[in-house]
Structure formats: C-alpha cells, structure tokens
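Researcher: I'd like a structural prediction for the single chain below. Treat it as a standalone chain; there are no partners to consider.
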Amino acid sequence: MKFENVYQITQWGGGKGAGKVPLWICCIPSELLAEKAVIYRRTPERRDGYQRELSANRLGKGKLGVTGYLLNQMGIFPTSVLVNIRKEEGKVKFERKYAVDENVQVGDLSIPDDVNWYVMDGQHRIEGLKAAMREKNEFAKYPVIVTFTNEDIYYEMLIFYMVNARQKSVPTGLAYRILQSTVYDLKAPEWAKSIMGTGADRRKAIAATIVDHLNTKENSPFKGKICEEGEVWESYHLVQDATLIRYISIILRERIFSDMYDEDVADLLASYWTAIKNIYPECFENHSDYLLLGTIGLSTLTRLFPVIYGYCVADRDISRKNMEKYLRYLLEETKEHSDPDFRRPIDCKWWHKVDGPGVVHGTGEGHYQQVAQKFAEKISIVVKRERSKR
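Model: Treating it as a single chain, here is the predicted structure.
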C-alpha cells in the first residue's frame, strides 16, 4: 500500500533515552482508515492493551457527539489521527522526493498490506465517521489527516498516555495499568521512568501488581473476584481493581511496606482481608447490600491496615489469626469513644446500606481518613482495656 507526497517529519526531545522519531503525515479516505484501524483495548486476556472503551455520548448525533458534528455541524477535524505500524509486524518504507529542510522531507510512504494500523488517538473520530458513512455515502471519501509511526507497542501505550493525560483525562484504571507497565517494562526509556516511575506514580504501579497478586493467590479472599480494567462487571465480582489500587498505593507511603517485595505485601493483605471476611462473612456473601466492599469500606479498612500490622509486629506475630484478634475489637462497645457512631459495635449492621449510620454514606478522601482514625481509636480503647486486665 503506497501513499504519495507524504511529509516525513523528524522530532525529538532532550530526555534521557529519548531519540529522534520519524513521523509520516498524509491524508487517507475515511473508508480505508475505518477498514484498517485496530483499537487495542485492555482486557484481562490482553494485559498489554491500553485503549479505553468507547463513549456512547461522544458517538451520538447530539450537540456533543462526533456523528452529529459530522452530519449536522461543521464536521472539520484539523488534528490528525495517530496510528502506529508496529515494527515487529512490519516496517514502513519512505522514498524521499525532496527535502524542505533537514528534518522535513516529502516523498512516498509504503506500508505492508498485511499489518494492523493501531490507533493511538482518534478512535471516536473513526467510529463517528463509520456512523456518518452509514447514513451518507459521501463520507466514505472524507479525507482524514493521519500521522503514522513505526515503533513498538510500548511506544503506542506511552503516546496514548501522554496525549490523553495532558489534554483529557485517561480513565483512572487505565492510567494505573500504564504506570504499571512503565515501572516494570525494562524497555521503558529513562525519561519516562523518571516522570512516571517515581513517587506517587510508582506507588500506584506497584499497587497494581499487588492487586494482580490478590486476584490470583489461593489465600486471597479476592481470588478471581476483582473486576479488572477492561472486564465486564459480573455478580461474583467483589471489587474494582482501580479502587483497590488507589487505596493500596496510600499504604505504600509507609517505608516499611514500600521496602517489601510486592508479593510479600500481597500476602499480608490477603491475610488481613481474610480476617475481615471471617468477621463480616455476610458483607462478602451479600456484598451488594453492604458498604464494606464499597469505596468507603475499601478505603477505611485499607487505611487501617498499618495500624493492625503495627500491633502484630509489636506482638511478633503477623499471622492472620493475630490480625483477626485486633480487628475483632471493632465489634466491642466503646462508650468512651469520642464519636457516638463508633461507640456501638462495628458489625455487619453498621455496614448495611439501609440500617447503617449516616457516616457510612459519607464521601471524600478526608471523610474516609477520619473514619479510619475513628476505627483506630476504637481498637486502641479496647487494647488498653484488655491490657489493664492483665
């Protein structure tokens, strides 16, 4: 497949490990682009996928929909669709006709017929054009500006992240997985690791790997029950991976956990959540009726984990049984607690969507942090009470 009078533009950055990258810019009829385009979405079976699901709102015929924009409004797309021809599938060939300058040349671009065109940016434009073509044949010849690259799959993912994270937000779950790939992929350039492989981003990447362990470990109450990015929620699912990743990344701020191997942290959390399941079996069995496995439960109980771990370390016993001992203190009455909602036992009824106190319906990270602190206060009261009996 040959495209004539294509611009080859060479660009580069000064980041460590960043080299010169050639880009090829041309116009392609929408029917050809629609035929060749591949949207590489993430699913549990395709863990290197990076694209998000299509938005029905963006494809509609209304004021903000791409299809409506084409059929009823200006219909102009001045920015290009970004497409990669993976170099492991085939190499493109550029034959120069003349040079504008040393970094801009004009010539003919040849692309192997049997390769996929992986769309890094522009999937909604392509789907909108398909819908417009179904209603008006003239859109089959609509000229689309396309920028081609000939790099590997990691480059695709990185460009997707950079374009979307800096212009319009990448869905949180996808962002976590892209960060995970950056931290663990040995091919990632130094400049990418220096930006996305440190600090909070690194913690989120490690948390994503810990969540993967929790979804596969035999000793985990979440085994096979974490809904992964790109997976359809089913009734047997207990949690979304993005929610767990977010809150596990918070506890990784603690030096003691950040210095551990990922799998060791996963083992501790598997024991911890098994203890919680033993205490609140009804909240797991009928999880849709309770908020323990909702955002507030996952957030507050994960934040409580370092407190429980600290008690266990002091005992020199970090077993599931010892964790459960301290967690069961939540079931005690503590009349001396500073907050009336936490004086009663924190039992299954407390977590119930209908019967629980108003505090379980609060939202926001500040609220979740306060609830975790109230839990810690309750446990501390019972610990002192038990020690005074000795």
